[in-house]
Amino acid sequence: MAENQEVIRTPDYVAGPLSEDEKARLREVAAYWTEVAFRSTPIDEAKIGPAIQSLYVASGLSAPQVIVVSSPLVMAVAGGFTSAIKQAKAEDACLKRISDASQKQPFGPLEWQVVQAVVSALTGSTLPYAPPGKDSPIPESRPAMARALAETIGGSTLAKAMIQRMREWEQHYQGGNMMAAWPSYLCGLRDVLGLRLPQAEKFAAWEACAKEGGFRWMGDDFCMVSDFPAQRIGMDASNRLHNADGPSYVFRDGWRGYHIHGVAVPALVVEEPQKITVSMIESERNAEVRRVLTEKYGAGRYLVDCGAKVVSHDEYGILYRKEQLDDEPLVMVRVLNSTPEPDGTMTRDEAIATFGPAAHLAAKATRDTRWKEYFLRVDPDLRPMRADGWRGDPQAPTARNAVASTFGLRGEEDGYAPAFES
Amino acid sequence: MNTIYRQGDVMLRRIDALPAQAAAIPPTEPTRVILAYGEVTGHAHAIDPTEAVEYTMQDAANVVRRFLSVAGGAQVRHEEHATVDLPAGIYEVIQQVDYSPGAIRAVAD
């Protein structure tokens, strides 16, 4: 058992259970590195340059030219292009093409970040880092932007190899601050448990790079390192990328992404959800994205607007069912509140027209009352549900059974028929 | 059939007797037995503690169940719903739940 293990804390070996004090200090180390991972203050060129050079030297390599770029996107594109151009020894031809192109038409802000990094690496003379700002417009399609840039810089003969190398970015990169777990672990061993292995000196270079920079493309004689995001990355409680009100991440060149609980979605879903349409939902082939679109549109509203099948309409409500590609059916019961409300969305007559037998309480009310409807999602087989996750057996698809299922009951067998409801 | 009373998302289902394992619990607040709070508004489905006693138990399936013993009639009040008059009796308290779909399984293309 761990409790019986001998506690050993020497500079070259540690073993045995953690004390409460060690646990508390390790938590502090983890908290520190978590903040590093979320860093959004601008990169400091004076610190990241020497850090990366020391990392190359610690690995037995020559110190490279360090080029700060505005985002991991620019890193992948510029790093891939530079690497392919250098391998083809086409530096001069590509620099001339860049010069010619820029005289014809200025590059867009994001494209210019790529071009600037490539020019720096090809000439060996680093241009000053000047990101255009997080609100800069970005091309609608980044792959199309990269293909067009590759054609401009490399011409038809080299463009394919440049794009191919860009796509291989995962083979050439290290994650910097966004791979904070490892430095957190190793710093904990060193600073809390006192482990001082011979490798610690070399690790110090890695540690500095993790604190001072983001993603980096590790070329033979150049390293392109990304700045940090312009604002804290948005996450949900399960540490998935998430921001319901804006981009989940945005860099200082405008490159951004949108996520709802880890699902990557188009910008419109977050920025202009009122523009989501039924046809957009129905043509979405990715079931996870479709769920987000449906939720933003309003699942109940979607069922009505898409003309979903009404499988039952009785004095309890209206039951809808919609089959969905690669996902379980969407089954909801549409019900009318039992009590009129001043801010209700329907007049009494509208409620009666829509709900028919399910508007029996509205029918008894005065004409000037207003009523609210709402939708309850139910198990596709109308299994009775309880909050603890218990599910009963399937039951026949009626609105009565559907409402009963939301209280863990069976409509028929349990005789769901409130004597009074409000 | 067991008589059912509903106030919004809270249901009270009359039952014959209190299960033997059920134990009385003190009122949620000094002046109110809270059956359920609203998710956003802070509104509550509540009963005067002099009118009813709440009981709870864990059944054979480890499900926590809630009951209400009403001696001489009780009123369930809520800020946005009409008051429900409960006759004397034993009731099970059940809160409405919405269905959440399961995780999407990976589909092989």
List the helices and strands and how they pair.
The complex is a heterodimer of chains A (422) and B (109).
Chain A: E1 8-10, E2 13-15, H1 20-37, H2 45-58, E3 65-69, H3 72-87, H4 91-104, H5 109-123, H6 142-167, E4 173-174, H7 181-191, H8 200-212, E5 216-218, E6 222-226, E7 249-250, E8 256-257, E9 259-260, E10 263-264, H9 267-271, H10 278-283, H11 287-297, H12 299-305, E11 309-314, E12 317-324, E13 327-336, E14 346-347, H13 348-355, H14 360-363, E15 370-371, E16 373-377, H15 399-405, E17 420-421
Parallel strand pairs in A: 3-6
Antiparallel strand pairs in A: 1-2, 4-5, 5-6, 7-8, 9-10, 11-12, 12-13, 13-16, 14-15
Chain B: E1 4-7, E2 10-15, E3 23-25, E4 33-37, E5 44-47, E6 52-58, E7 64-70, E8 74-76, E9 84-86, E10 89-95
Antiparallel strand pairs in B: 1-2, 2-10, 3-6, 4-5, 6-7, 7-10, 8-9
Q: Main attributes?
A:
heterodimer, A: 422 residues, alpha+beta, four-stranded mixed beta sheet, four-stranded antiparallel beta sheet, 17 strands, extended, B: 109 residues, mainly beta, six-stranded antiparallel beta sheet, two-stranded antiparallel ribbon, 0% helix
How would you describe this protein?
The complex is a heterodimer of chains A (422) and B (109). Chain A has 422 residues and is an alpha+beta fold. Chain A is built from 15 helices and 17 strands. Helices cover 41% and strands 15% of the residues of chain A. In chain A, α3 packs across α6 (142-167) and α4 runs antiparallel to α5. The longest helix of chain A has 26 residues, at 142-167. Chain B has 109 residues and is mainly β. Chain B has one domain. Helices cover 0% and strands 45% of the residues of chain B. Chain B is built from no helices and 10 strands. In chain B, the strands form 3 sheets. In chain B, strands 1-2-10-7-6-3 form a 6-stranded antiparallel sheet, with no helix packed on it. In chain B, a hairpin with a 6-residue loop joins β4 and β5. Chain B is globular. The relative contact order of chain B is 0.27. Classes of the chains: A alpha+beta (422), B mainly beta (109). At the A-B interface, α11, β13 and β17 of A face β1 of B.
